[in-house]
Amino acid sequence: MHSIDSNVDLERIYAVYDKYNLPDNVRRHIEAVALGVARVIAVLQKKGVDIDVDLLITGTLLHDIGRSVTHDISHGVIGSEIVLREGFSQEVANLVERHIGAGLTEEEAKGFGLPVRSYVPVSLEEKILAAVDNLAFGDRMASKSEFIDDIKRKFDTTPLSERFFKLYDEVSSLLGEDLSLVVRGENSFSQSL
User: What is the structure's pLDDT at 158?
Assistant: First the structure.
């Protein structure tokens, strides 16, 4: 696969995993998401898209650190608190906090009992992480049809499900090809390497 230049401090991140006893299955999930994100980065870099690689990789590797405490929807908020406590930037904390689904509006956050604020991804890096994470079924990347079926099953046809599909389409459009093919290494770019 295309190499991505990054100055991410992996030892520091793995030390956080160990400190918070991050379960092995969550680590495998994070690795799968990180590989998908790396594939997205490679395509975007080839297209000349400006992206903060170090920020995105760091946020990706820490996005589920909150699952060391809980597996419910609050893991994003808890994870952002952990990364701030561990000295990571607010931008990394935003990635961790906003990766849940396709983001939550203030009203939806209130309904879930989360601190009332918007959790909708704003930056390109936040959108990429959320979109790729949505395709991760454990440590396996889903196809587009599996993703669509899963969202429809969970959310029917609601504004929330439409937000998932819009985010997927936005990242696919930026890539110039289907996101699920890119994250699974089945796109034209990865096949030409």
Answer: 81
In sequence order, which residues have a C-beta less than 8 Å from that of residue 47 and are 6 or more positions away? 175, 176
Average pLDDT, the chain: 93
Whole-number Å distance between alpha carbons of 17 and 169: 32
**For the chain, which residues make up each domain, given as ranges?**
10-191
Residues 104-108, mean pLDDT to the nearest whole number: 91
In terms of phi and psi (left: phi > 0; alpha: psi -120 to 50; beta: otherwise), the region of 4 is beta
- For the whole model, what pTM was predicted? 0.93
Q: Does domain 10-191 have CATH number 3.40.50?
A: no
